[in-house]
């Protein structure tokens, strides 16, 4: 079990139900949740939520972020536009852990169409338990940070 962290969550309408389930599951584990919405399944724009979660992470209000849309692609693209964010779209726990260990990812993205709640919880647990390995990976992450 990882120490309690502050996590920022966001989704559009397509990720609403999965985001809500993840927030509840992680609250039970003792994490502090900053839920940036959306508040319903009414159509909305995923970049708004991706940018809000990215801002929380960059500003240090949250250690990590979690984003959900229908495919996960839109929120990942939008979050990666925020300077300092390294958002990873994953569908399994192994990739989630590797995104932290090798890429120093700070936001995890899911597609609600492809990932169910138990899988998403397992992914978040693997992500939070992993630590950046640095070494050869640090050089690559530095190159990512110098882009744009």
Number of helices: 6
- Strand order within the widest beta sheet: 2-1-3-5-4
Q: Given the helix and strand composition, which structural class is it?
A: alpha/beta
Number of domains: 1
The CATH level-2 architecture is identified as 3-Layer(aba) Sandwich
Q: What characteristic shape results from the CA principal axes? A: globular
The CATH class, by name, is: Alpha Beta
* Element pattern in H and E: EHEHEHEHEHH
Termini, distance in Å? 37 Å
Low-confidence stretches: none
CATH topology: Ribose 5-phosphate Isomerase B, Chain: A
How big a fraction of the residues is strand?
A: 15-25%
Helix content: 40-55%
Describe the main β-sheet briefly. 5 strands, parallel
How many strand segments?
5
Mean pLDDT: 93
The CATH H-level superfamily is Sugar-phosphate isomerase, RpiB/LacA/LacB
Rg calculated over all Cα atoms = 14 Å
């Amino acid at each position: 079990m990882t120490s309690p962290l502050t996590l920022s969550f966001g989704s559009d309408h397509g990720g609403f139900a999965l985001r809500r389930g993840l927030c509840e599951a992680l609250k039970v584990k003792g994490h502090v949740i900053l839920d940036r919405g959306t508040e319903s399944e009414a159509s909305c724009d995923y970049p708004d939520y991706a940018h809000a979660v990215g801002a929380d992470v960059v500003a240090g209000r949250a250690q990590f972020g979690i984003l959900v849309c229908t495919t996960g692609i839109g929120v990942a693209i939008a979050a990666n536009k925020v300077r300092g964010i390294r958002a990873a779209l994953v569908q399994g726990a192994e990739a989630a852990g590797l995104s932290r260990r090798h890429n120093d990812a700070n936001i995890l993205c899911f597609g609600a169409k492809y990932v169910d709640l138990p899988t998403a919880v397992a992914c978040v647990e693997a992500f939070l338990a992993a630590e950046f390995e640095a070494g050869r990976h640090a050089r690559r992450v530095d190159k990512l940070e110098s882009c744009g």
